[in-house]
User: Fold these one by one.
Assistant:
Number 1:
Amino acid sequence: MSAAPESASSAPQPATGIDELLERVRAGYERIEAQEAYEAAQAGDALLVDIRYAALRERDGLIPGAHVVERNELEWRLDPWGSHRLPQATSHALRIIVICNEGYASSLAAQSLHQLGLHRATDLIGGFQAWRGAGLPVE
């Protein structure tokens, strides 16, 4: 018995480095600077989501009003159709700004949200460190 030939869609993807992967991911959406993220959140036009791990939040503080969602829970908490969603995650049209420490993991997280149909998801260029460096509120 012979195996069925693999279709092009199931063929393994060629290996790539993280820098190339980030470049491809980031080309798929517009990232946001700290001041613009702050203004969008203040206007009620965006949901800030902090995916940093606890030790970084304890060390550096929190962005007032940001929702802390551990990275391993992100998709479950922001899927508008999910049973474990945040109360604010009510629509695929929601503008979500994902924040990590320096703006790397947040890019991959934003791509994952795009795959769930959250096409307005983006991430903060430079992450929390850029937010704090811009003199924006931290508690």
Number 2:
Amino acid sequence: MKRIRFFLLTLAVAMLASCGTMNTVPITGRKQNLLVNDEQVLSLSNQQYQEYMQKARLSADGVNTAMVRRVGQRLADAVVTYLNSNGMGGDVSQYKWEFNLVQDSNVNAFCMPGGKIVVYDGLLPVTRDEASLAIVLGHEIAHAVARHSAERLSNQVKQQYGSQILGTVLSGAGASTSLQQIGSTVFGLGSTLGSAAYSRKQESEADRLGIIFAAMAGYDPQVAIPFWQRMASATGGGSSIFSDHPSDAKRISDIQKWMPEALKYYKGGGTVPQGGVPLQQSNIPTIHISTKK
């Protein structure tokens, strides 16, 4: 009987996988099997994001708020330009980018599907300058572009519900109650960290894409290494930004390995691939960060 149940469960998961769509992550080329479409994911995430923003306290610091929005939009513009130039513009065609700074002392930032990104002002003393902030925002934008939330949502569907909601999830009629319940777990805005628990694989992928995206926008990706060293010191060897993050030593080692690739997208580091829109590094000021509330 146990073997039969296991076989049926395996069959249900296989059915779910076969009914999904294959997606390719830009630049890394990793393949994903997604069981939910953009409309479903964006509907769920926008609902939770609006609920979160109604309760959040926006930063009263106009200078820092403007900086977060300026750096974020610069990154988003560079990434969208690159994707459009390389035939991948459809990946973000429904995104509506939004960058907010909120009053919270935690060293944290998070991204919702569709380009909704929140930075806690407790992070700014660690980033210290715009280039380092770009590393964080590049990482968060990478989560959105790589559809990590949709991937995690799809995995939760397969693991928790199998064939029970196969027809409902894939019917195209909108998000079901079950899917909404899973979405609440996946997006996790009610949690202390206020961010989805991405896998180590996804976090590493976001690290790689994040430094490349920063380079595309004209920020020196090499600042990522001292930034992560500061982050390790600030958080005692662990980072509250990432739920299932790699160790700080592993992250820094990987970033060093990926740096030659990122520098190809940076005007100061070599030839810029088609679609990259780097700016002169001299345009990036180091500024004094105020976190007064």
Number 3:
Amino acid sequence: MAKKNRSAPAKGLRGSKVGLALSLGSSALAVIRASKQVRRAKGSHDKLNTADAVAGMLPLITSAALVLRQLRGQRRENGPETA
């Protein structure tokens, strides 16, 4: 069974500002949860668990950055036009 991309917006909201905002919010929550995991791993002084937690955060941060870039691109396209 293929793994679903959980950071992708719902089909009906794909590409909309609401869908991208929901995607960004879920990515932000995942980053917060993963950062707590990093703190716990650091507290146990286990370097392997710390490395695993940090490596797990990288795709979350990347997906959040991609969603932000899409939101900024939409804002530029739909921004106020000065005539």
Number 4:
Amino acid sequence: MQHFLLSAAARTLSLKAVFKMGEDAAYQAFCELRWPETDGEAVCPQCGCCETYNITSRRRYKCVGCYHQFSVTSGTIFASRKLSFTDLLAAIVIFVNGAKGVSALQVSRDLDVQYKTAFVLSHKLREAMALEDAGQKLSGTVEVDGAYFGGYVKPANVKDHRVDRRYKLNQSGKRQNVVVVRERGGDMLTFVGKSEGEGVAHVARVVEPGTVVHADEASHWDALHGRYETFRINHSEAYSLDGACTNQAESFFSRLRRAEVGTHHHIAGPYLYAYAGEMAWREDNRRVPNGDQTAMVVRSAMVSPVSRKWAGYWQRGA
């Protein structure tokens, strides 16, 4: 049986098609995804009036009711954008096409923009993706697991100078843990903390009562037995035994590790939560055609408010 990603059904939008459609068609696509209820006809974001004047020379609108001027990206995560709509749509297609993510350096080369532009744009897209999981609760049967990222300490060159890096004294303090809660046949949610044990409280927040939980033998997961029906698997004996396994949670970490090793090379630090959320989105939508994935990201960006974290990011860091 042919894998989905190898089939024609997985390829419904290409970069060639984006650049052939032209700026007007790309602009109309953004309008239709911003205002789907009116088939792309502008709606004032300030008063909700559907009657507007079209200022075609600047691609802006003026509300008949309150005289407020706005554009298709006003009040969204793309507010104050400088890229053309064609380049913006192409950037999103490049972004969603990477099964293990796409580096900002590659985006900057493909679109001939500065690395800073590609870096901030990529993180804005990750922020928009995260809206899909906001306030979500998981139920049914879920798997939980954690993995550590970052904080690597390089061993000394001479063997006699090397230290035991398992001791906290010899660690960098930068290591973080990603905990994933994955619903079988559904979505997944991620959490980043200093230790895997912090994920217990996260599981209690996002998993509905009555859910069946699968976890490994780590002692901090013992607390789950008092709240859920819990199955445990000892990975030193088997990966799946007596109906208990966390293989689907492990598959998420496989994707995240490949993104770390093969694409970004370093994803720890203050941005780890964003990369973990991105990989969860990719895993959740791995069987969705890339054209639909692009539409999902654009739609999320069109309902995302102006980013507080990524507005003026490089100016703040100067």
